[in-house]
Amino acid sequence: xxxxxxxxxxxxxxxxxxxxxxxxxxxxxxxxxxxxxxxxxxxxxxxxxxxxxxxxxxxxxxxxxxxxxxxxxxxxxxxxxxxxxxxxxxxxxxxxxxxxxxxxxxxxxxxxxxxxxxxxxxxxxxxxxxxxxxxxxxxxxxxxxxxxxxxxxxxxxxxxxxxxxxxxxxxxxxxxxxxxxxxxxxxxxxxxxxxxxxxxxxxxxxxxxxxxxxxxxxxxxxxxxxxxxxxxxxxxxxxxxxxxx
Length: 245
What we know:
Blueprint: H1 2-11, E1 15-19, H2 47-50, H3 53-58, H4 60-71, H5 80-90, E2 94-99, H6 105-109, E3 114-116, E4 119-126, E5 132-133, H7 135-139, E6 154-158, H8 167-179, E7 182-186, E8 206-210, E9 223-225, H9 229-234, H10 239-244
Parallel strand pairs: 1-2, 1-7, 2-3, 7-8, 8-9
Antiparallel strand pairs: 4-5, 4-6
């Protein structure tokens, strides 16, 4: 399977990677739906309620308590999956990363063209005057974080439940997927919409799925690999060396 993946990568000139939480679990960031993920934590409300726009408006102190505790992960570093994707971009093969993750690890690994469908914990803005704040500002604040300029509430640039995706990010991701000759789906079960629906725009030659659990795209895929994505993308095979053996 690894050799088959490397052959596809070698033949491709316009790769797009579409990823989810499974890409970041190997960096120590919990997956919402895994056994040890946020859905199995004990709070007064389930995460999908707390991480909603309504809850942010009505119970902001509880929202930020949960957000600081569970959504800001300190010390996380890119894993082999992030690094390999950045390498493929430097080589001119990978044209875009479309991610559902909000941790900024693709950029930390060196990827330049990243469409963050659900925003990023690294960016925070005052809802009143638009002043920018970094992740540390939220992490080190108490109660409801307030803008030091105007006193407005500082909100993470993260798409909450009930909120729509950024139109510009969405259109860029769709255009990239439409142009791709190879689409690699990794670390996502394709259950979160509308993000999961983006794979339907792919019309290219090779569809690869790297995910521990089955996905809705498996039946369309040329190749399905049920292994941790960091492990798969770190096992780079030199096809030329194999030919000479």
